[in-house]
């Protein structure tokens, strides 16, 4: 009986030891798995993006058909739009055509073809040409007008904030931008300037979207250098300009 009791105690101790060993091995394996998972999962660095954007370039342009055109997602439509703008610029700038004359000549040519075609069908016994009825929908026009009014009101609010004298940095940036635009406007007429802007909209975004990983570090260095130069300019010039109180004094 004593031997059986000793055997039972030994078997019980062996089971307890095996259980402890199994728990230790499972915990160590789970720890090692978690370590490998944490090591395998790379930490995404906080990458600096131009203008502080957090969304892709396609979403910045609205994410719809205009974004597809600007980023050349549909090459046929983008090429046709850019080709049409180039043809208009060549007609009005290089060939010195006038808008009213071009519209009148196109209407004369179209009406003459349709008129002759309609009368010729009576002699050759064919159906008259089907001239579609053109009707402009109201919703897109109202949406465009609403979007333009929102942007114009936003521009007016920004100009009002700048004129209030609260932000010297924004004031200098806007004045510098307007001065650059005035210099460019003196070098080109409105049509050429509009065409250059149109071409830039169809080339710069797609190039930036393709090489943004190379452009962003260079832009970050440029912004840091601009901030340093602005800090020096602020310390030497702007800080010495007397500025009145921004807020009204409280009445006693």
UniProtKB/TrEMBL annotation:
Topology versus the membrane: Multi-pass membrane protein
Chain ranges passing through the membrane: 77-92, 98-118, 171-201
Highest taxon listed in the record's lineage: Eukaryota
Keywords from the UniProt entry: Endoplasmic reticulum, Membrane, Transmembrane, Transmembrane helix
Pfam families noted in UniProt: Reticulon
UniProt-annotated location(s): Endoplasmic reticulum membrane
GO terms for cellular component: endoplasmic reticulum membrane
Biological processes annotated in GO: response to bacterium
Main localisation: endoplasmic reticulum
Residues in Reticulon domain copies: 66-251
PANTHER family xrefs: RETICULON, RETICULON-LIKE PROTEIN
Name recorded for this polypeptide: Reticulon-like protein
Organism classification: Eukaryota, Viridiplantae, Streptophyta, Embryophyta, Tracheophyta
């Amino acid at each position: 009986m004593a031997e059986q009791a000793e055997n039972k105690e030994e078997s019980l101790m062996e089971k307890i030891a095996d259980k402890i060993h199994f728990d230790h091995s499972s915990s160590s394996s789970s720890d090692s798995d978690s370590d490998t998972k944490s090591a395998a999962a790379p930490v995404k660095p906080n990458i600096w993006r131009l203008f502080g954007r957090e969304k892709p370039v396609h979403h910045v342009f609205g994410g719809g058909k205009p974004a597809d055109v600007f980023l050349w997602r549909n090459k046929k439509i983008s090429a046709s739009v850019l080709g049409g703008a180039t043809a208009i610029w060549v007609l009005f700038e290089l060939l010195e055509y006038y808008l009213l004359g071009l519209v009148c000549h196109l209407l004369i040519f179209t009406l003459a073809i349709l008129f002759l075609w309609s009368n010729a069908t009576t002699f050759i016994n064919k159906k008259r040409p089907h001239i579609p009825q053109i009707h402009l929908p109201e919703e897109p026009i109202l949406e465009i007008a609403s979007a333009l009014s929102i942007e114009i009101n936003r521009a007016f609010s920004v100009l009002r904030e700048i004129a209030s004298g609260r932000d010297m940095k924004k004031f200098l940036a806007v004045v510098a931008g307007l001065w650059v635009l005035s210099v460019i406007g003196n070098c080109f007429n409105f049509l050429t300037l509009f065409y250059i802007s149109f071409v830039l909209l169809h080339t710069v975004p797609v190039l930036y979207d393709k090489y943004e990983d190379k452009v962003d570090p260079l832009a970050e260095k440029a912004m840091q250098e601009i901030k340093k130069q602005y800090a020096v300019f602020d310390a030497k010039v702007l800080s010495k300009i007397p500025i009145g109180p921004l807020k009204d004094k409280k009445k006693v």
